[in-house]
Amino acid sequence: MDHFLYRDGALHAEDVAIAEMAEAVGTPFYCYSTATLQRHFSVLDEALASAGLSDRIICYSVKANSNLAVIATLAKLGAGADIVSQGEMVRALKAGIAPQKIVFSGVGKTAEEMRAALEAGILQFNVESLAEIDLLADVAQAMGKVAKIALRVNPDVDAGTHEKISTGRAEDKFGIAWDDAEAGFAHAKQLAGVDATGIDIHIGSQITELEPFRLAFEKVAGLLANLRAQGHTIERLDLGGGLGVPYSRGNDTPLDPATYAALIADILGEAGCTIMLEPGRLIAANAGILVTRVIRAKQGKAKNFMIVDAAMTELMRPTLYGAYHDIKPVTQIEAEELVWDVVGPVCESGDFLGQDRALPVPEDGDLLAVFAAGAYGAVLGSSYNTRPAAPEVLVTGDQFEVVRARPTYEAMLSRESLPDWL
């Protein structure tokens, strides 16, 4: 459920009319609903509690939407953060996430990033190779510290999702190979600078079937038993994220968080470990929309094109993954519908927000809403064609505020300089 609803034919975010925001902010812009962010976090947290998983940490995956106001909204609910860069750590800390609730994931952590995270006192590093373990041990020892680590192991489970967001197969770049996992823990145990106290997995994103999770969790349970038999102290199980969300309003049927939580409890609830989850898309996707204005309609013999002022620079997912996002008029009207490709002004044939969509014939200046744009929208944005980044707006009740402003061209160019010889 989200809080983007029509009232008397006008789309609202909570109690604010989208058209009112468009008039004040200009288009394109992202709009996020506080009530939806809160609800999505709470539904998952309450599902875990109801399943008896009292020892838990929900670490919001910052990469999904890294706006400070979004992170701060979740911090007030008790969320931790899953980060994949030093920059994301800086954001999480600034937004009020306690360092003791931050886990550092990712395959390419540098020594500089490790030092910064150790200095900040984060909860855990999710390490993905023996070479990374060695580097982290050296860095920590030089600082007189011991880094708490979880070894991310690759369970070789196909999540049945898009190949570009699948992360748990043997051919994916993530994690230590399953057959090498026990040797990896044995190796870490010999190093003074690290303390391997956790198992970490993450099999992919936008997963809509329970079976891949079952297979992965059962493998974790087996590994946990083996490691404890070998004398390892395992205190945390980081099960990643991956729960899918509905991208087509009213048509998709993603997994129920209660069913997912019950599965975790059934397989791992008696493990005596802190259960850690890393949801991102689940919390943020349907908490945001992208609002765009029609520049003009262009009817042709083979295709009809609705040209709007948002583009792949604001929403890369359709171009990158062939992803589907619902697109609806901000003002509902009774009018003839045609089939359109909704495209942006960027000079690329791959610049589209939706293809073959039945929509009313628009007037120039009409507003459209692209739904489920709260995750992997702004964070994947670019300034290609020297397009200023779209502003981000947060709504709560009948209030809204710009939480990232649209930069001026002067501000964009101020980061560049001409060498003396020019």
Compact description:
With 422 residues, the protein is α/β, with parallel strands linked by helices. It contains twelve helices and 21 strands. Strands 4, 14, 15, 16, 17, 18, 19, 20 and 21 form a nine-stranded mixed beta sheet that branches. An eight-stranded parallel beta barrel has the order 5-6-7-8-9-11-12-13, surrounded by four helices. The protein has a three-stranded antiparallel beta sheet with strand order 1-2-3.
What is this structure's SSE topology?
Layout: E1 4-7, E2 10-13, E3 16-17, H1 18-25, E4 29-33, H2 34-50, E5 56-61, H3 68-75, E6 80-83, H4 86-94, E7 102-104, H5 111-120, E8 124-127, H6 130-142, E9 147-154, E10 176-177, H7 181-189, E11 194-200, H8 211-229, E12 236-238, H9 257-268, E13 274-277, H10 281-284, E14 288-299, E15 304-308, H11 317-321, E16 327-329, E17 337-343, E18 352-360, E19 367-370, E20 392-396, E21 399-404, H12 409-413
Parallel strand pairs: 4-20, 5-6, 5-13, 6-7, 7-8, 8-9, 9-10, 9-11, 11-12, 12-13, 15-17
Antiparallel strand pairs: 1-2, 2-3, 4-14, 14-15, 14-19, 16-19, 17-18, 20-21
Helix pairs in contact: 2-9, 5-6, 8-9
